[in-house]
Write a structure and sequence with these properties.
Length: 310
């Protein structure tokens, strides 16, 4: 029972961390830092942390074989490098609520990727879910936002977020076998190193050009939040909780993330919830619910379907 409470606490904290990011990042971008500069600080900080943690926790563990090394390479490129570059670029252009809603399509991407890469069967419910979720995402991307003056490039930002969710969904399918085979710090250390090699060339100039001397305490706190809480702590808690949480429980927290993101964004005055967005959210939620329905015996759900996080 005590462990169950810890799982709920870990999942809720991870969900809250991700939900708050959509609004807190707006304080940083673009007034104090540009998107790629933030990503550079995130991946460098996490790379150093997980490299040290790996040496302390599993010094003899090593990813072996051509197949696993190629898998780790792709996970680092798609799940860390491209994922984070696209996420912060998209969030810089679009609204917090739109970004948080589009992020929830990752489970749909996982189902499609599993069907293509792992030859998983797509049931009628899941096919319907893919179509409904895709319709909601398309409506959200193509609808002219109410705050068009505030977010003139919202459509481009929404496309970036959609690509971000797509790469992350693909990453979830590919990283699962590595997590089962090796120590988590071994996998995270490798993929964050690869992610840093991808992201840093895009962002080192922005990171160095940032005027850190004029950061007020609030902005320093948000930078620390992005590096430690959003990247390091969230990955650690998420990986621990996924060992014990059921798919149904994970599904609850997938739906909770955009709800919290909306509440935080509205409370902080970063965004407004319109009827259009509410309708698009319903379509996406219904799509995710359909693809997350447990298939009949003999057709297990793809690993990671309900494990989508930023």
């Amino acid at each position: 029972m005590k462990n169950q409470y810890r799982v709920h606490a870990a999942l809720f904290l991870v969900t809250l961390i991700y939900a708050a990011t959509y609004s807190l990042a707006k304080d940083l971008m673009p007034a104090y830092m540009h998107p790629f500069g933030i990503v550079t600080l995130r991946v460098l900080g996490a790379s150093i942390f997980f490299a040290v943690a790996k040496q302390l926790a599993a010094p003899q563990d090593k990813i072996q074989g051509r197949a696993d090394n190629l898998r780790a390479l792709f996970c680092g490129v798609s799940g860390i490098g491209l994922n984070q570059l696209l996420f912060f670029s998209g969030l810089n252009y679009t609204s917090p609520i739109s970004a948080s809603l589009l992020q929830t399509i990752s489970p749909i991407v996982v189902v499609v990727a599993s069907a293509v890469l792992l030859r998983e069967k797509i049931t009628l419910y899941r096919l319907l879910g893919i179509l409904v979720g895709a319709g909601g995402a398309a409506a959200l991307i193509l609808t002219r936002p109410a705050q068009a003056a505030v977010y003139p490039h919202a459509t481009l930002g929404n496309i970036y977020i959609l690509l971000n969710a797509t790469f992350f969904g693909l990453y979830l399918v590919l990283v699962a076998p590595l997590m089962r085979k090796y120590h988590p710090f071994t996998v995270l250390g490798r993929i964050f190193l690869i992610g840093a090699l991808v992201a840093v060339p895009f962002g080192w100039r922005e990171a160095l050009a940032t005027d850190y001397a004029h950061f007020p305490p609030k902005i320093w706190a948000e930078v620390l939040y992005m590096v430690f809480f959003l990247t390091i702590l969230a990955y650690l808690l998420n990986n621990w909780a996924l060992k014990y949480a059921s798919p149904a429980l994970l599904g609850v927290y997938i739906y909770l993330q955009p709800v919290l993101a909306v509440l935080i964004a509205v409370a902080l005055g970063k965004d407004t919830l319109t009827w259009d967005k509410a309708g698009q959210a319903v379509l996406i939620f219904v799509g995710v619910w359909l693809v997350s329905k447990k298939p009949k015996a003999g057709a297990p759900a793809p690993t990671g379907v309900l494990e989508a996080q930023d």
